[in-house]
Amino acid sequence: MPSTSLTLLASATLVKQGAEAKVYKSTLHPAPNLASLAPDKVQTDASQPVYVLLKHRFQKNYRHPTLNASLTRSRVAGEARALMKCLRAGVNVPGIRMVDAAEGTLGIEWIEGESVRVVLGGGEDGEEIQDDEQGADADIEPPDLLAVFNVNQNDVMVMIGTEIAKMHLADIIHGDLTTSNMMLRRKRSLLSTTSAENKETELLLIDFGLSYISALVEDKAVDLYVLERAFASTHPDSEPLFALVMQTYAEKSGKDWKAVGRKLDEVRLRGRKRSMVG
């Protein structure tokens, strides 16, 4: 009898494929009973599907099957542990819906929103930033996504710094901090009685496939340096924006910032030397 994850994958829609995994959109049935959280305030429809993101680590033919199975189980379980640790620490990350380490599948909450990379005008993943006169749609004015989410750039930077600080205080290293791995969404409070009430925007960190647990200041500094380089390459003239990220991170990190900030300066120096050597 096929596992639950294989059954879900069979009817899922492929969204994206990377070097390590395929990402699908699927549904869970029956829908969770959210009314149990606030019976008098939440109206739910059990017939409505609950979307889930399925991350399937497919088999690598160049690996021995036994080694492949062991690595897959370890990485799926590790990503799930990191997400659970984030959730316990109050970090905004997608909720876990299912874990099937044997089949290499992790099911997490589907986020209806947009990546920070796109919101800030960096384009979709894998796209190069084009000159204004290039492209067939150059004359089409893109939507103002900041207005859609009712935030400004400074709001987003503060949210980024806050979530990363909470993550590092819990000794979780993301391993791939880029604006592509951050999502904005409009959230309606579960206690709201109408769709127009209590709306707010929140930022979530996603894709913990390279994450690990570490209390080392060096690892936290490298995490921040990766994000700094991502800002520089994806969002031109973003130095003031990243400075606000770091200011917020320092405020939220408290006494830990002094050591992390000092180590970050060392990491930056090593990075510049490496760039000069080539």
Automatic annotation (TrEMBL):
Enzyme class: transferase
Any Gene Ontology CC annotation: nucleus
UniProt keywords, alphabetically: ATP-binding, Kinase, Nucleotide-binding, Transferase, tRNA processing
Ranges where the Protein kinase domain occurs: 9-278
Biological process, per Gene Ontology: tRNA processing; tRNA threonylcarbamoyladenosine metabolic process
Keyword ATP-binding: yes
PROSITE patterns (UniProt xref): PROTEIN_KINASE_DOM (PS50011), PROTEIN_KINASE_TYR (PS00109)
Family note: Belongs to the protein kinase superfamily. BUD32 family.
Name recorded for this polypeptide: non-specific serine/threonine protein kinase
